[in-house]
């Protein structure tokens, strides 16, 4: 006879709390216009027991079904993409990537921020030379080759996210391992030195190309990334405008709180071959491009300890004392758990 153990099943209260948390996570999912249209089309045909649910629970149910369809179509796409033949196979192997010698040098320094090749543009956002224009052009040529193949073979290109209608997901057509190696070799060691609060970046990544051009995607709305740290590498091409606007670090719960006037709100221009490194929780937007075509490699790296990082953490300032934040601000926003002095001496809150 097996020994008797107390039940490990969650209590009714715990189960209900988990259910509510799951619903809240679903309601945060960004859907494409096509997916929203799908929800509108199927909602009138829901069974009676679903129609009687509260509006929030019913929408969560619909979103879950859309996500299931999304996963299924993504799997079919990935199977089809196995037929793709690279133009430049060396690009898919990280050991063949060509980095700027200045970038390699600064990653070896104990304190990269002290390097003359390293610029803290605003508190917590760092710019550095990373690749030369030749490598950047080769990478863009490979993306062009991939999109041409998709067009000729009637394969729909998966766009990076719900906000970008152009660009491509690098992980989908062979770059997953190279991007993982990039994080392990350079981005993780660099980020751990710059952001001392951070956990190791070993929780996966999302790598893609974004493209901005007049008449297509011209700008990107204010948002925060679903990552611990984000690398934004400008690959080209000739362009004017399209700067990045940064508006302060916030947890997900307060990502739409307006930037603090006079303290937050900075524009940063792009330089071909230069990378920008910032926290995923550092809210930003892309201003409208004026001419030409700007294309960037975006690599969002995640940590495994999601409960302790910026993706979900929330601190209620109403129960904290803070000399940096005005009293009105305390009631309206939280401070992400980033309490350290940057090179400039400013405190990120």
- How do the helices and strands follow one another from N- to C-terminus? HHHHHEEHEHEEEEEEEEEH
Structural class by secondary-structure content = alpha+beta
Low-confidence stretches: 1-7, 306-349
* Average pLDDT, all residues: 82
Strand content: 15-25%
Q: How widely separated are the two ends? A: 58 Å
For the sheet with most strands, the description reads: 8 strands, antiparallel
Helix content: 25-40%
Shape: globular
User: Which value, in Å, is the CA radius of gyration?
Assistant: 22 Å
What do these coordinates show?
The longest helix has 27 residues, at 55-81. Strands 1, 2, 3, 4, 6, 7, 10 and 12 form an 8-stranded antiparallel sheet that branches. A 4-stranded antiparallel sheet has the order 5-11-8-9, with no helix packed on it. The chain is built from 8 helices and 12 strands. A hairpin with a 2-residue loop joins strand 1 (119-122) and strand 2. It has helices at 12-27, 33-42, 48-51, 55-81, 101-107, 133-152, 176-194, 327-332; strands spanning 119-122, 125-129, 168-169, 205-213, 220-223, 229-236, 239-241, 244-249, 266-268, 274-279, 282-286, 289-301. By secondary structure, it is of the alpha+beta class. It is globular, with a radius of gyration of 22 Å. It starts with 11 loop residues before the first helix and ends in a 17-residue tail after the last helix. The model is unreliable at 1-7 and 306-349 (pLDDT under 50).
């Amino acid at each position: 006879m097996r020994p008797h153990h107390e039940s490990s099943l969650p209590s009714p209260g715990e189960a209900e709390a988990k259910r509510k948390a799951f619903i809240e996570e679903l309601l945060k999912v960004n859907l494409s216009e096509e997916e929203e249209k799908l929800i509108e089309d199927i909602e009138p045909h829901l069974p009676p027991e679903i129609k009687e649910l509260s509006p929030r629970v019913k929408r969560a149910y619909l979103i879950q079904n859309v996500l299931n369809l999304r996963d299924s179509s993504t799997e079919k796409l990935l199977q089809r993409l196995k037929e793709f033949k690279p133009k430049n196979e060396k690009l898919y192997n990280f050991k063949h990537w060509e980095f700027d010698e200045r970038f390699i040098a600064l990653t070896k320094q104990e304190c990269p921020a002290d390097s003359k090749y390293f610029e803290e543009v605003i508190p917590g956002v760092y710019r550095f030379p990373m690749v030369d224009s030749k490598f950047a052009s080769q990478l863009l040529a490979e993306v062009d080759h991939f999109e041409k193949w998709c067009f000729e073979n009637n394969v729909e290109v998966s766009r990076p996210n719900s906000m970008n209608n152009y660009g491509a997901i690098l992980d989908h057509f062979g770059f997953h391992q190279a991007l993982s190696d990039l994080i392990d070799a350079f981005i993780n060691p660099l980020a751990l030195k710059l952001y001392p609060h951070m956990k190791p970046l070993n929780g996966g990544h999302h790598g893609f190309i974004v493209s901005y051009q007049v008449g297509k995607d011209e700008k990107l709305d204010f948002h925060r990334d679903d990552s611990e740290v984000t690398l934004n590498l400008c690959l080209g091409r000739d362009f004017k405008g399209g700067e990045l606007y940064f508006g302060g670090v916030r947890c997900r719960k307060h990502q739409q709180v307006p930037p603090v006037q006079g303290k937050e709100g900075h524009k940063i221009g792009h330089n071909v071959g230069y990378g920008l490194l910032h926290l995923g929780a550092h809210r930003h937007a892309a201003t409208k491009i004026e001419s030409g075509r700007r294309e960037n490699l975006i690599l969002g790296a995640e940590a495994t300890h999601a409960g302790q990082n910026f993706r979900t953490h929330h601190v209620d300032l109403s129960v904290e004392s803070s000399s940096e934040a005005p009293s009105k601000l305390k009631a309206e926003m939280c401070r992400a758990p980033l309490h350290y002095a940057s090179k400039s001496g400013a405190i990120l809150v």
